[in-house]
Structures are given as C-alpha cells and as structure tokens.
Amino acid sequence: MKKLLFSSLVLSIFMACEAIFIEDISNEEVTIIAPTDGSVLDKGTINFNWNSLENVDKYRLQIAKPSFTSATQVVLDSLVTSTTFGSDLASGEYQWRISGVNAEFETNYTTASFIVKAEDISAGIVTITAPVENSEVGVGTVEFTWNELNDADEYQLQIATPDFDSATSFVVDTRVETAFFNTSLAEGTYQWRIKALNSGFETRYTTTNFTVKPVDISGETVSLTTPANESEIDAGTIAFSWEALDNTDEYQIQIATPNFATATSFVVDETVDTATFNRDLPVGEYEWRVKAINANSETSYTTLSFTVK
C-alpha cells in the first residue's frame, strides 16, 4: 500500500512539472510576409502580416520612423495575438519588426524597412485665411491661418518686412504641422507666405501683404464680470475678472475704499496682462475699476462697487 502511494506521488510530481514546462523559443524567428524589406506602399492603411510560430502566445509588433537605429518616432509598440495588424501611416520611411513571446521567452526580432510613398501635391494651392491681402492688424500677437491641404505633412511659413524682394532677413522662417501660427509683430509693413510639403513633394508659396499698426481702442469699453456691482462677498481672497478686449496689451486695475471719490489712497493700483486678478481684502466697502491699454491708446475706466462682509 505504501509502495502504491509513493508511486502515485512521484507520478503526480512528474505530471505537474510537465504541465508547467515552457518551451524555449529564444532561438526561433518569426517570418515576415508583408511588407517585405524595401517595399514601397501607397499612403493609407498598411497591413502587417507574418507567419505563426509554435509555442508563441503573443507577438510584439513595433514600427519606427525612419528606422530603429535613428528613430525620430516610435509609431507603434504593441502586443497582438493574431498574425495580422493594420495601421494608418503617413508618407515617409519606416522600419517594422516582429518577435514571438510566451510566458518565459521571446524570439529575436525580424526587421524590414519600407516606404509609404507621398501623394503629389505640387499642383496644390494653400489658401490663406488671415491676414488676407492688404489687411490691417493690431500691434502685438498676430494669428496666421490657412486652409489645410490634403496629403500635406507640414507647412513652411515665412514672414518678411517690408517684403521678400527687399528684406535683409526673415522675421519668421519655420515649419509647422498645424494650419495656424501665432507670433508678435511690431508696427510696420509685411509680407507672409505659406507652402505645403510632404516627404516627396511641395506646393508653390501663396503670398500676401499686410500692415501692422496700433489700433485705437479709446472708444471701447471693458466689461467687468465679478464682483458684480453692489454685490456682497465674504472676506478673504477676492477674484476679479472681466472680458478680454481685442488689441489690448495690458489692463490697469484699481481698487479703493470706500470709493474713488473719497479715497486718500488706492488699495490696489496695478497693471496685468490677463483678464483676472486676485487680492485678499478685509471687511469694508470698495469700488474697483479697469481700463484696457495698448501702444497707441487706452479705454476709459469701467467702475463697480462691492462690499466685503
């Protein structure tokens, strides 16, 4: 009976060890089906395919641009259970690699390079939306916008003063991936131009003239939002806010107690470049006012009263 029990125990241990044995696949290799090395593909969804490998639970798929040794971007790093995977890729040079994985081991990577060819955009035209031809904009931050061009990867934007023919240097010469760009410009006459590019082609420049000059805001009004007129507020940090005014460089905010007519000094007299301001105030009656300022002009003050209780 004891001999039978011992034999059963040995058999159970043997079966358990066999059950948890993991096949060493580290010397195996996954065979790539497509895209093969040197492939040139159309832009869009790229289907990656490889042969299945025994004793593999998952596959690690990685895609880099332009290669793994000089990657500017790892486009994908994912574990998948199937032997196919689709990914939308822009035009450019890529490498992809695949390895098999189980609970304990991983194969070496199999790697292939491929190119997603660019669409010919050379006949395309980038349409400028702002600043448009012969427009006038205010001194300060100027927003440049244009319509996106299909199959473009980026845009070359240049700004010169007074124009590109007589400019000694460019005010701006940059590439962006969006269809807008902001920069601060001083008063003067300018030209700006934009073209679209992808990995194989580029359009011609679209060029526009515009003028930057100070904008007269003296007839504008700053709209105060909080604290509202004649409101009551608990003592502590008071949040002051107002609506931002276009073509404004900064705001002058003043606070007096009990009001500006009888105040011997101001509680606050500061300039800020945002449309918000915070200040701790004790119990009392107050007036506050704000005006907008730019390089050429300023608005009148807008005044409200409030009480801190």
Give a written overview of the molecule.
It is a single chain. Strands 2-8-7-4-5 form a five-stranded mixed sheet, with no helix packed on it. The protein has one helix at residues 2-19; strands at 32-34, 39-41, 44-50, 58-65, 73-80, 84-89, 92-101, 110-116, 128-130, 135-138, 140-146, 154-160, 170-176, 180-185, 188-197, 206-213, 224-226, 231-233, 236-242, 250-256, 266-272, 276-281, 284-293, 302-308. It is mainly β and 309 residues long. 6% of the residues lie in helices and 50% in strands. A hairpin with an 8-residue loop joins strand 15 (188-197) and strand 16. The termini are far apart. The protein has one helix and 24 strands. It has three domains: 21-116, Sandwich (Immunoglobulin-like); 128-213, Immunoglobulins (Immunoglobulin-like); 224-308, Immunoglobulin-like, CATH 2.60.40.10.
